[in-house]
């Protein structure tokens, strides 16, 4: 793997691209924008050779401030003990004036953020009123649950500042006039704001050089990193200011081959280890079975005890089964009544016949 090296930017080429972009922005500027003193953002678009594995936020200090004085900055502070919200606001305003900080337009304590900016409409209004947000590093982790996702979607999440620092003015000036670049693991393109249209060409080129070198130094990637760098504004076409050599492709191919070889070797080792483990287990199981057989041959076999039924139980069972078989099926009631009636009739008829015989007179 090749180590990180500084990118060799052609200063003259960068300056030409900056001048061309400034000329384009002057032609597109209108009378309304000149009256309001509006300046457009100038950004760098980085395209990497491969998608980063880890998401990262890179802070880029710039030699020349890339924010105009007209932009408004909001600061979130913690709640001071034994003080109301108004008292804490006054306390931090006085602290910033004493330290020489003049870039912050409004201070919002944490308690007022929770109560006054709880509705969704109030949060959207707060997001639109300010261009940048700062927060005391002591309450930075508490803000996401109260601000909502729109601050992060618009890339206006508050940047942490140490308000207890002895060089507070320098730290706040670096954070405000510097820039950030978010490197995501979802794509190979990232953008960072580095200047505005009101700056001179030399100031913009110096900011570009500083931003490129810091990005290359702080990226968590190995091998050749940057493929192309473009310069653009909000309304212009992207102008290329750096393109990498084709030799980087060979370096990347070699690196990929090495990683593939390493992965294959690791997979082979795992397969070998698994087969060896299976063989060892088979050998141990076979040895245990052989040992058991030998022990069985030496020892006498113990006969199994089988329960035998007693003869009394057998006889009782046989008797009960025979009785069940000998039982006759009961005749229906209608048949019995008919038989009884027939028997009575025959008896009566026999009696009447005997009486008739007796009444016949004897012949002399």
From TrEMBL:
Record localization: Nucleus, Nucleolus
Amino acid composition bias (Basic residues), ranges on this chain: 261-271, 313-330
Keyword Acetylation: yes
InterPro entries attached to this UniProt entry: eL8/uL1-like (IPR050257), Ribosomal_uL1-like (IPR023674), Ribosomal_uL1/biogenesis (IPR028364), Ribosomal_uL1_3-a/b-sand (IPR016095)
Skewed-composition ranges (Basic and acidic residues): 274-289
Compositional bias of kind Low complexity: 331-344
Tagged with keyword Cell inner membrane: no
Keywords noted in UniProt: Acetylation, Coiled coil, Isopeptide bond, Nucleus, Phosphoprotein, Ubl conjugation
GO CC aspect terms: nucleolus
Gene Ontology terms for molecular function: RNA binding
Region (Disordered), start-end ranges: 261-364
Domain of life according to the entry: Eukaryota
Family that this chain belongs to: Belongs to the universal ribosomal protein uL1 family. Highly divergent.
Record's function text: Regulates cellular senescence through inhibition of PTEN translation. Acts as a pro-apoptotic regulator in response to DNA damage.
Record protein name field: Ribosomal L1 domain-containing protein 1
């Amino acid at each position: 793997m090749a180590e990180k090296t500084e990118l060799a930017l052609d200063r003259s080429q960068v300056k030409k691209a900056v001048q061309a972009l400034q000329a384009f922005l002057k032609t597109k500027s209108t009378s309304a924008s000149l009256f309001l003193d509006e300046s457009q953002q100038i950004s760098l678009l980085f395209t990497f050779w491969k998608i980063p594995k880890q998401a990262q936020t890179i802070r880029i200090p710039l030699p020349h401030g890339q924010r105009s004085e007209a932009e408004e900055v909001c600061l979130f502070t913690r709640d001071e003990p034994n003080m109301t919200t108004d008292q804490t606001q006054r306390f931090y305003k006085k602290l910033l004036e004493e330290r020489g900080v003049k870039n912050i337009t409004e201070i919002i304590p944490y308690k007022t953020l929770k109560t006054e900016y709880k509705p969704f409409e109030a949060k959207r209004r707060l997001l639109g009123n300010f261009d940048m947000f700062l927060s005391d590093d002591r309450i930075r982790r508490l803000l996401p649950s109260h601000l909502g996702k729109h601050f992060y979607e618009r890339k206006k999440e508050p940047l942490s500042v140490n308000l207890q620092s002895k060089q507070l003015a320098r730290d706040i000036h670096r954070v405000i006039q510097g820039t950030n670049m978010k490197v995501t693991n979802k794509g190979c393109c990232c953008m960072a704001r580095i200047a505005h249209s009101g700056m001179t060409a030399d100031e913009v080129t110096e900011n570009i050089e500083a931003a490129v070198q810091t990005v290359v130094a702080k990226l968590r990637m190995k091998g050749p990193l940057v493929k192309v760098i473009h310069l653009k504004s909000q309304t212009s076409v992207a102008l290329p200011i750096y393109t990498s050599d084709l030799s980087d492709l060979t370096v990347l191919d070699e690196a990929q081959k090495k990683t593939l070889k390493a992965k294959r070797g690791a997979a082979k080792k795992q397969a070998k280890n698994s087969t060896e483990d299976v063989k060892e287990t088979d050998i141990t199981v076979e040895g245990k079975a052989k040992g058991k057989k030998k022990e069985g041959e030496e020892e006498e076999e113990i006969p199994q005890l089988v329960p035998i039924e007693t003869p009394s139980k057998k006889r009782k069972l046989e008797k009960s089964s025979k009785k069940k078989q000998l039982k006759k099926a009961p005749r229906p009631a209608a048949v019995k009544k008919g038989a009884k009636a027939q028997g009575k009739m025959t008896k009566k008829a026999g009696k009447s016949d005997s009486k008739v015989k007796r009444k016949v007179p004897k012949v002399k």
